[in-house]
Task: structure prediction
Amino acid sequence: MSALKIARSLCAASVVFLLSPALSAQTTAPPPLLPEPAVRALAAEVSGTAAKRNLQDLTLFHRMRGSRGFRAAAERVRDRAQEYGLSEVEIVELPADGTIFYGTQRSRPAWDVDFAELWEQRQAGADTGAWVDAERIASWEARPIVLAQDSASGEVGAELVDVGAGTAEADYQGKDVRGKLVLTSSQPGAVYALAVDKHGAAGLVSYAQNQVTGWWKEDETLVRWGHLNTFPAPKTFAFMVSLKQARAWQERLAKGQPVRLRASVRAGQHPGAYSIATAVIPGADRAHEVVLSCHLDHQRPGANDNASGCASILETGRALAKLIREGKLAAPRRTIRFVWPPEIEGTISLLNARPDFAARALAVIHMDMVGGDAEITKAVFHVTRSPKSLPTFVNDVGAAFGRFVNEQSYALAATGAAPYSLVDPEGSKRALQAELVDFTEGSDHQVWTEGSFRVPAIYLNDWPDRYIHTHADAVANIDPTKLLRAAFLGAASAYYLAGLDAAQVPALWQEVRRGSLERTAEALARADRLRAAGEVEEAANLLRFHLAYEAAVVDSIGRFAAPPAEVRKEAEAFLTGLRSLVGPVPAMKSAAGETVVYHRATDPKGPMGGFGYDWFEDHSAAKSIPSPALMKRTGLWGGGGEYAYEALNLVDGRRTVRQIRDDLAAICGPLSVAEVAEYLAAMEKIGVLLREGGPHAP
Result:
């Protein structure tokens, strides 16, 4: 999972609740949306202990895409799904050899390792001058994270040279690295071209640190997951070591004492396959599905990231299948599907290779990092909405169940009793305190919600986690209660969406209305800040977008069930009231881009950036197209690239360039029409977009 800044959301009812510690369990709200017996059955059945047992099983495998370890983990998931009584259990095999494309994803060859060790050497004696192994620094067998992904075979005995970051030519001034091992603070992939290709280093040793959080660099013993670039295939290897080890070497090198290492690696890329486990709980309607998603790949142990999500959706499947067999829950109207792909690249590949999966999907509940014990990992749990380019009531379903778990878990922590304790016998009793937040990128949900597929997603995730992408992302950091609550949220949301019909729409409308009022409060606050900054027109644009967004959220219900006449009438009156609350919104002044309209080409489908391959970067370089300024903009989410992601999502064959600019400004923040026009023109030049009525870019 990528490290992205998490946006705050207003949740007035939850705030009131959390400020009232004297509240008793009896004052908590009844279960939302689902009948009470169904909620009680789900709460009683889901097991954090069972989920943690499966999680622990998955952490035994180094789960690189296409590798033997990934395949073994996929088979373990398949076997469990069969044991649990899920239907149509299979492993979908998608060939991956570096030449096959699945939409915007260039398939990455499998990568396997047979052996890797790094030894520090000492001279045997002054007479012989021979170097002998003295201390083993890294062992693949003991800790596979020590070898950077995509490393190639090599046998090297050489001095270590410290180049600092190693990403600029100045880092190599006055240093002879040819045939030697280079010590760098950067990720290996960022250093390889200069250190190896240009200056002839025999291999890399990196002490790159974890994602920046409040706990960054505090634990100097952590070894971080490292990566070399997949394309072109590396000709040598990179080892990963801790900051503590690197500093010890740097002290000796600064004193003029040589450090000599011996590296032995047998590893490399080879043609393979994305092995994607999938299963279903069949519904009467086989043409529509609600999907539970995760990502199975990661370094060993990779407990929270992301064995936790994999085990939690498996537990969701177990609990639902068992309750349906026992007659405690009715079979769902729509099919519920479960998928365990490699992160992002696997989902892009699956949705392109099996377009029927995307065509049937009405909604996705995605889990990536859902089990971290907050006292250890410092994690905050999030229930994350779909992007603003995709208005949907599904967000309000996730928020309703998220608030319910917050209330129940707080009641238990504060008073010792709750109608639905949602506590595992082997887990904690802490309140969940889930944050209900706006969209952020960082996992497979961003593929489902992207403009090629437009499937709404509820994204459950922890952030931060001080052990993410390190050897210490271990089973000991996992809270079974957290896994139980994630499985409950997934089961309740999926089962509700799979069964939603017209009779349930009145209760759903109450949740949508509540969410709309909260979003309106946020929009008004943002508009006030824009006015205070002198951006009066942008404030009006934001409110115009907001009103259209809320109307589209109401309309989205119709994809699942036709709202009864009384709900339609009530919703129309509510939206009229919102317009009155917001007040008059003047039209934007005319500007460039009023007539130019684009639509997406039939192919390729998927986001521009996958894993290990970037469609835009590759194709724009071939045509000498400079990177548009829009791609470098950081928006409200704070992760970078948000503007580009949403701009492409907003292309629909109806919006003009100017309208895309206006909607994008409302979502991410003000920008110029010229920036949007430049970006969309670049997308046209590489064949991603087509202009309505003409082939030429503006």
About this structure: The radius of gyration is 26 Å. The CA atoms of residues 385 and 395 lie 5 Å apart. Confidence is low (pLDDT under 50) at residues 2-26.
